[in-house]
Structure formats: structure tokens, C-alpha cells
Structure prediction request, 843 residues.
Amino acid sequence: MIKRILSLIPKLLIPAIIASLLVLPSCATSPAEITSYTIADSTGDWGYPSPYTHYSRGPGYTRMSFIFETLVWKSATDFVPQLAKEWEYVEGEDAYIFRLQNNVSWHDGTEFTAEDVVFTFDYAKEHPYQLVDNTIVKSAEAVDKYTVKLYLSKPYSPFLQNVAGTQPIIPKHIWQDVSEPGKFTDPAAVIGTGPYTLADYSKEHGTYLYNAFDDYYLGRPPVKEIKFIKISEEMTPAALKEGSVSAGSIAPEIVSEMEKAGLTIITAPVAWNAKMTINHQKAPLSSKQFRQALAYAIDRESLAQITQRGHALAGSPGVIPPTSDWYNPDTPQYEYDPVRSQQLLEELGYQMEGDYFTKDGKELELELIAAADYKEVGQFIKQQLEAVGIKVDFKTLEAKTVDSKVEAWDFDLSIYGHGGLYDPSILNKVIMDEGFNSARYESNETLNQLLGAQLTEMDASQRKDMVFQIQEVYAEDLPALTLYYPKWYWAHDGSVNLFYTKDGIASGVPIPLNRMAFVK
Amino acid sequence: MFSKRNVTTYAIAFAFILVLNFLLPRMMPGDPLMAIYGDEALIAMTPELRAQLVERFALDQSLWQQAGAYFLALFQGELGHSYYYNAPVLTVILGRLPWTLLLVGTSLVLSTVLGIVLGLESGWRRGSRADRAMLAGLMSLNGFPDFFLGMLLLIIFGAGLGIFPLAGALTPYSGLSGLALVLDILRHLFLPVAALTLSHLASGYLLTRNTMITVLKEPYMLTARAKGLPPRILKYRHAGRNSMLPVVTSTGIWIGRVVTGAIFVELVFAYPGVGSLIYEALLTRDYPVIQGVFLLVAIFVLAANFLVDLSYPKLDPRVSYAY
Prediction:
């Protein structure tokens, strides 16, 4: 047996040596040529990487973004030019002027011009692109061959982030004849301006193969070939160690083991939060004071430590995480205080009888529903609320059942999570929008007015003031309570300098696969 | 030989399955719009986009209209268009079906043949040390769920020793072809097949062994022995054939589950199969895909039943008179 294992060592060593040889050139900062780079993904298939056929999630956008580009893009720190070299906002006209690069060609050799940009926004009027609100741009106009003017229907503060930096520009000469973009999966559907072209896509194997586009206007990409392969998250660490995979997302528990194995670890800035949603339409939860009593009763610090094994930050009741530039440090925090919680309940007329509070002879009992993923979080909350004197009936249900019950207001408390925490426009979506993923809270006029105003305020510092106020008002009213922000990690071999994009790729995708990392 | 009455029974069962197949997915809480787009915060769900999606998914139509469209398309051989995968359902299923058939088919054959052979040998030698060892070993294997065995094998032979690949059905973009490609596919197939075979081996083995022990006590076995037949003929032709009936039944049930029987093993090995497809389709409430896969399952179950019905009289002619 030992002999057999010993005889395997050369087999294990050779890939390790090859892997370490591959890692070495990365120490130099100049763009060394890399023949192939492999990225692991546990889902695999994210759709045909064309704007109208990729699946409507961040990884789908990312795969498309190696082929299609936007007017502006982002680095690790700021907005950077992409198809547009320069841009400016014309205040009086509610319009943006973009001056385009004049040496760009589509992958089929056709020249890229302002016509393509105008076409893209006109086309989206009829066929909305899933990740961009097509009502923001009222009209697009080509001023000359390399200048575009986009008129907004009203001022929109996150325009660069959510529109100019997200909307993929498509070639007019191909798409003008396409009437059903959702079914357009020709090879022509993946002709873009980006640094890579699609060589293969396999739906069933969940794999993608990209080749460098040698005539790319910013220079030949040094990484010649990028592969996406499907592999379970449990096996990604082994694949990273043996060198068959260059980068992949890993579980927080094995970060230190991966570091010891010589891999580079990167952490995403907080982008996602788990929340306790509260049915504020229904007594007693319709009382603000009652909701505050709930917040005092739950120790979010311990919740993050225990249920997430420390790989999470405690939630801020203003949704925006403390790591964000938009975070207001004066947001009411409801530090853990069970006594204060009980006082608030007593003020509301509840009396402690036995283990639980009662009112008018009825025991105070709430129903908490959540998907099985939140089993531990739910149990923790049940335990803490019951310790204060609120009886909790906790049920785990299938995820979509929870969603539809919440949508129909058929619940007391529920747990669910959402991402998109980079730009404050997310607040409008999760407070005012329809649907189960929003608090649907419109009874505070000040809050409504502030939310509306922050979206149209083009002055950055004034917008920041408004976002600060929103956090205070929202945390005071508590239509939902942010519980924790999980930490996410990627491990990679260092051959390409992967980084997290400022405020996420495009409108906020928290994946460290910005195509710029493969270009420069 | 196959009577009109049997055909009618199959037709009624099939029609009943089609109706259930249409209704069940729609009775689940939540709709595809909510399931596919609901929890993605970056989606810009404008009223226009919502209206377009509702129309594309035919969610604005009544159940009757949807049913009419579904059955009409079905009779034209159309399985519909997947909401999530954005492709024809038939294409989506056919892309994965060969891999499932390869994986589950191989392990079905292996576990049945091995189960019968081991069962016969074990029953023949009932009470011996070899029999007891085999019984204990296979009984304990039987206790492990297939995905657990899969993970164990993957951790030892994949991650630990590095002998077998960690995921998938083949090495993506390896440029292999011909024999090298076949070997690559077999190398990827080995661990998942081993996991499925080992965890299903026991049921065939136990059934065969039990029947074998009963059969050995039959008078005709004594006669055969008295004729001076060699043990190999006794074991396989006389006792073996008579011990196979229950195994054929259980294998028939298994064939019906070929399509979805490997869900967990497929997930553990990131193997492209119909099992993981149905899992994803349920999560996204992709009605057309769910219907398509269930239809396939129904066809497999009915076909397996049919085959078992056909093979019974061949194995035991007495069945034909059993009314």
C-alpha cells in the first residue's frame, strides 16, 4: 500500500511543478504571455454569452462581458474609458455626451461608430435588456461619426453605473434584422468589440472557451485563451492545488488552507445581505415600536459569529454596509438590549405571564418562515425572541413557497437575502418596488420623498446627504432588518492579477472577473 | 400475444400521466417569473420587460389555453421552449440524455449482473464464510446513500490520490479525439459509475440470494442433481434461471428511474445529466422543461413495464396462465 502511494508521488509532483512554473512569471508586472487560464464554476451553464441570451444573473453578464463592451467601464477604483474616451453631463438638457474611440472594429472587421450606439439604445426600447432600465434613456442621437448624445427622460444619478457602464453595445449591421433577440444564438450573435471571441460554448457541460481577439483596439490581450469549466465548489480547492484550475470561488472555511498552498486569496467588498422581513401591514407588526422591540431582542453580532461561523459582518439596520462609502455611521444600531426590548413591549400593553408576553389574554406568538438555507439563522432568531418573551413558530419551507407567501403578505416574519448593495439605487428597489424581494413600505412620506430625490440628484455630495438621511429614517421605521453580510472569497494562482471592480462589474456584479485583468 | 386489453391499459395510463404532467408543475407555489428573476437584485424589471416575459411564458393565458397549446404542440412532436435555458426543451434534454444513459445504464447493467452472480454464488454456498462475508459487506454498502459513496470515492481517488478527474464527463477543450477521447470519457465515468453500482448492488444480490436459497430446496433440484449434472449447470441453468424473476422485476423498476435515478451522483460529480436538469428546472419553475423530463420518465417507466411484461413468460411460462 505504502509502495503504491509512493509510486504516485511523481504523478502528483509533476502537475505541482508545472503549476509553480506557471505561477512564477506572474511575479513580473509586465504582461507576460499566458497560453491558457481556467476558471472554475459550480453551476457551469450561464447561457449563450450574448446580451439577450445570457441568464439574468451576474455570472451570465460576466461571460458576456468578455465579448461585448459598454461605453464606460470600471477599474478597481474608478470609472475608466471603454468604447467612449470621454463623457460629460449637459445639465440644462438632461443629456450625456460620449466621445467614442475612433479605432474600434467589431470582431467581423466592420468599423464601430456612433450609429451602433444609437442603434443599441433604440433597439432596447423595443427589446428591453434585462439589466438596464430602458426608460431612463429617452432618445439617442449621433452628433457625428464618433460622438453620441443620450437624452435622459429625467436626471438619473447612477447613470454611469447602471446604464452607460452596464448596457452592452451591439453591432447595428447584425442586429437590425433580428426580431426575436431571445432566440438569436447564431455565431453572429457573439460578435462584439471586446478583447475575446467565443470559440465554444457547451450548455450540457457548462463550459466556455474564449480566444484572444488579436486586433483589439487596446492591444493584444496577453492571456491567449480563457476557459470556464464546471466543477463543484467542494472540489475546486483540489483542482486549484493540482493546477488544473487557475481561479475559483472557495468556501470561507478553507481560506487558510489555500493560502498555505501558495494560492492568492481575494475578498469581495460586501455586496449581499440577509434580512428579516417583517409584515408591517399586520398588527402587532404594523407598530414601529413593536418592530424596534424585535431589533433590540436580536444580537446580530452573535448571529454573524455563530450562524455564519464568523465569516460575516453584523448587519446595519440601514441596509448599507459599514464598509461602503455610502454608509452613515449615525444610523440607529439597536445594540443588543433584551431589557429595552421588554420595556418597549410593556409600553405597548403586553404583560409577561409565565414564559411569554400576553395581551388581552392572548399569548404573543409570531410565525417565522424561511427556506432551508436559513435554518440555523431562523433557529437563532427563534431562540432570541423567545428569550425576551415572544413565542416563535419557526417553519422551513421550500424557497419559492416562502417567496410566494411573502408576496401575498401571508406571513409574520421571514428571512431572505439580496445582493446589489453597491449603489444606493438598490434602496429604492428593496423598499419601494413591488414583489416579495421588496419591503413594499410606502407609509413614510419623508422616506418616499428622499428615495425619489436621491435618484435624480446629479450632485454627488448632495446625493450622499440624502442617502445618509434615508438610512436613518429607514432604520428608525424598520420595515425589515438587515441581519448580516457574508464574506466571499476567491482563490487564484496569481498568474493573472484578478481584482474586484469598484462597486461591482457593471451595475454591481461581485465577481472578480473584470476583463481588464486579462487585457493589461 | 400482446392483447388489445393491454394496449388500452397502457394508453389510459399514458393519458393520465400527460394530464398530471401538465397540472403538477403549475400547482407548485411560485411562478417562473418570480423564480427566475425574483431574487436577482440587478434586474431592471420595468413594466415593459415584465409584460414581455409574461407573454413569452404564456402566464397571462388561462390554464385551459395553456393546456390546449401544450397538447397541440405535443401532438406535433414539440416539447416547448425552456424559460430558463432559452432553448427548445428537446434540445436541452437531448444534450444531456446520452450522458445519463451512459452513466446510469452502465451502472444498471453492472449492478444487475454482479448482483445476480454474487447472489447465486452466495446462495449456493449459504452459511459458508464467503457467504457471510459477502452478506455483511453488501448489507453495509447498502446502507450508504449513493452520493455519500460518491463523495467518499471522489475525496480518496480524485482529490487525495489524483488518479481520477474531479468533475465532469470529459476534460473540456483537451483537443482529444478517437481512442484518447474514449479513454478520457471512461476515466471520468469510473467513479460515478462505481458509486451508483456499489450502492445498488445489494438489492439485486439480496433478492437473488434469497430466491436461490428457496429454489435449492425444490424437488426438481434434487432430480437434477440425481441426474449427475455438473454444479455449474445446476447453479446457473436450473437454480439461476428460477431465481431471476424477482431481480427482473426490481431491475424493471430501476429502468423506470434511469432518467432521474442519478440526481445526487450527477450533482456530486458535476456530471451533465437529466437528473441535475430536473433539479435546476424545479428551482426555476421552468414548466416546459419539467414537463419534458417527466414525460421522458413516464415513457421510460411504461417501456420498462412493457419489457418486464414481455420477459416474464419467457423466464417462467406459468405466468401466462395466471389469471
About this structure: The radius of gyration of chain A is 26 Å. DSSP finds 15 helices and 22 strands in chain A.
